[in-house]
Amino acid sequence: MVKDCLACDLAAGRLPLPGGIIHETSYWLVEHSVGSLGVGTLIVKPRRHVTRVAQLEQAEAEELGPLLQQTAAVVDDLAADCSDARLRAAVRATRDPDRAAGGRAPRPADA
Q: Is 76 in contact with 103 (CB distance < 8 Å)?
């Protein structure tokens, strides 16, 4: 875990995580989103500090697909009557020097 990384600080308990960790596997954590994504959004993130999908170990990558499917199924069950439920994944490059250098996402207070 990297200090001053929002994702790492939440996972390590250095910052409060509303709802706590919902589910965990050998390589991944599932938790409620904090910040602008809003209530009902779940985050699936690696246990270790990783800033790029290409940096995943083989075992992490193999566990990710089934975990995303299982997490989406839970969201589907909970939001069966919600017409706005959807799955999103984003892989993008950034020119933000804070994120490029250390992978630090802005904290909610920074945004």
A: no
